[in-house]
Design brief:
The structure holds two protein chains of two kinds. By secondary structure, chain A is α/β, with parallel strands linked by helices. Chain A has nine helices and eight strands. The longest helix of chain B has 18 residues. In chain B, strand 1, helix 1 and strand 2 form a beta-alpha-beta unit. Chain B has an eight-stranded mixed β-sheet, sandwiched between helices. Chain B has a seven-stranded mixed β-sheet with strand order 9-2-1-10-17-16-18, with helices on one face. A three-stranded antiparallel β-sheet of chain B has the order 3-8-4. The chains are: A alpha/beta, B alpha/beta.
């Protein structure tokens, strides 16, 4: 199992902490699923320690905290937010998100690379939310990132893996880099799909938080991600065009 | 006769005082900030009595307990029972389907039904209509409650409650957090605008994947536009982003809102427990009623009844989570 900046995660599920009906349900979703990483939006919940009670609840979950720069549109904003997050949460992990397009929330990969360089130089361990573009991935690694988080589909869309081919190519291109499908996962089958491709984790929020029963959905996502990982490790069979009988017929006695 | 001392003249405190007085108890109210006003977070509320809509993102007690609200308030202030209309832009129609699955008590409204209900809504072909819901003007409701209490002889003291009082009911919202370890503040922001050219007669909710917003008519072309729900305890000012989102929602409902005057902006912290449900707690000689969150007007009647049941009859409603008298 690939480690994330030297940290082994207990399982392949990372969950966001926004949009749950209540903090109590959020907590239950983490406890029931056992998700090992919680992403937190610092920008949205206000600066200057104003979200303290809520943040304390997240910290009390006892999981790895991955603060994010959600809602940032410029390098400067993202860098400032990351620095603030380091102060508030006492972690050098940062999920770097730089939004380039309001409707698709597509990352602005040019600014992303620039911000990633500034932050890694400053000692951050950057988890960049990126597209499935190989060259961008390469530039991010050059900038000092040791993890890549390509999208499956636009944030909150729940469409699953829009471009399986590109995600496969990314896995093949970066065999030693931990890869996380971040965004677009709506169903457990999507999570399993990503893990079957050999990804190291899935990161999702809306699919769980906005489900009718977030606790149940978190559990389903965990089981699916685990199943996908086991399947990948088990080396699945190749699909083929014709049937292949599982019981040999040659040599069978004629009665 | 035992005197019950209610601390806090927001929606919770006044509703509790009204319920106690109605049941024949002797009541006095303390609030150093004075009669209901901008210092309390219920001053800034929407005033929707919408248990069915709220059930979309709340636990079951909100739906059940909230249904007591319309009748309770109608005996004390003007309540408009015109239902709630929920609409979504074309691109957010999946959210409308989800909303209808997650709630009860609505009928689907097509273009013609929407036009018949609210002719001034433009460009919405699909919606949901919750006919049983109602709304009130929160400021008027607080003032009516307050006046009603005074007429009943309930004394109001614009001071802190003296130390060592017995039979205290603490309804101070977030100000009581030092006694309620799991209470937190959740930031809400709102606007009041005047748009005499737009005629909307009932609360309208506009669904959006990130920022569901509503508009509540207050009469005379005045509308309340709300409200954000942010896990932050900073109540200093409304942010530009929030104002932009609130105004964009209004603009999406009818571009004529672009010409509206902005009369007020409001920010405050809703008191909430971890499950966002209210609690009644008796600790020593004090009963705490708190955590009404987004549902001040919707749940205050149920909370008031629960407090009165505990204080007067020693019966425990489902909202009582701790009793260490």
């Amino acid at each position: 199992m690939r480690s994330f900046y030297g940290t082994e995660l207990p399982n392949p599920l990372m969950l966001g902490t926004a949009q749950y009906p209540s903090p109590a349900i959020l907590e239950e979703a983490f406890r029931t699923s056992g998700a090992g990483v919680a992403t937190v939006s610092l920008r949205r919940e206000g600066a200057g320690g104003a979200g303290q009670t809520f943040w304390q609840m997240i910290q009390d979950l006892g999981v790895h905290i991955l603060p994010n720069t959600a809602g940032c549109h410029t390098v400067k904003e993202a860098v400032t937010t990351a620095q603030m997050a380091r102060e508030v949460f006492g972690t050098d992990w940062i999920k770097l998100e730089l939004i380039g397009h309001t409707d698709s929330l597509q990352p602005d990969v040019f600014q992303l690379v620039e911000a990633a360089r500034i932050l890694t130089d400053d000692g951050f361990k950057v988890f960049p939310y990126t597209t499935d573009d190989l060259i961008v991935g390469e530039r991010l690694l050059e900038a000092g990132c040791e993890v890549l988080m390509p999208w499956g589909a636009p944030i909150g869309s729940g469409r699953g893996l829009n471009n399986e081919y590109a995600l496969r190519a990314m896995r093949a291109e970066f065999p030693d880099t931990p890869l996380v499908v971040d965004a677009g996962i709506g169903l457990p089958s999507h999570a399993a799909h990503a893990m079957e491709l050999g990804y190291d984790a899935v990161l999702l929020n809306t699919a769980v938080a906005r489900a009718g029963d977030p606790v149940l959905m978190a559990k389903a996502m965990m089981q699916a991600a685990e199943a996908g990982r086991l399947a990948h490790e088990a080396d699945p069979i190749e699909a083929r065009d014709m049937a292949e009988a599982s019981t040999p017929v040659i040599g069978k006695a004629f009665l | 006769m035992t005197t019950r001392s209610v601390i806090g003249a927001g929606v919770c405190g006044l509703a509790v005082a009204a319920e106690l007085a109605m049941r024949g108890a002797k009541v006095q109210i303390f609030d150093p900030a004075g009669p209901p006003g901008p210092h309390g977070c219920s001053w800034w509320a929407g005033g929707m009595l919408a248990p069915w809509c709220e059930y979309e993102n709340a636990e079951e007690p909100v739906l059940r307990l909230g249904q007591q609200a319309i009748g309770w308030w109608a005996e004390r202030t003007a309540v408009t029972k015109a239902g709630t209309l929920v609409v979504a832009s074309k691109r957010d129609l999946p959210d409308l389907r989800r909303f209808s699955r997650r709630t009860e008590g609505c009928t689907e409204a097509g273009r013609e039904e929407i036009a018949a209900l609210e002719p001034d809504l433009h460009g919405f072909g699909r919606g949901l209509f919750f006919a049983e819901e109602a709304h009130l003007d929160p400021r008027k409701a607080l003032q009516d409650l307050f006046r009603g209490l005074q007429e009943k002889g309930v004394e109001f003291h614009k001071t802190f409650a003296p130390q060592g009082l017995d039979n205290v009911i603490d309804c101070r919202g977030l100000a009581a957090r030092e006694y309620l370890y799991d209470l937190r503040g959740v930031k809400g922001e709102m606007l009041v605008i005047r748009a005499p050219d737009v005629q909307i007669t009932r609360p309208v909710r506009l669904l959006h994947p990130r920022i569901p917003l509503y508009i509540v008519p207050r009469g005379d072309g005045v509308y309340m536009l709300g409200a954000t729900t942010i896990e932050s305890e900073d109540s200093s000012r409304i942010t530009a982003r929030s104002m932009l989102e609130l105004l964009s929602a209004a603009y999406a409902l009818n571009p004529a809102f672009g010409e509206a005057e902005v009369l007020e902006t409001g920010v405050d912290l809703r008191p909430a427990f971890p499950d966002n449900l209210p609690r009644i707690r008796r600790l020593g000689k004090t009963i705490y009623a708190n955590g009404l969150y987004r549902h001040g007007y919707l749940l205050a009647p149920a909370v008031a009844r629960g407090v009165a049941d505990l204080a007067l009859n020693n019966t425990h409603s489902e909202m009582v989570d701790e009793d260490r008298a």
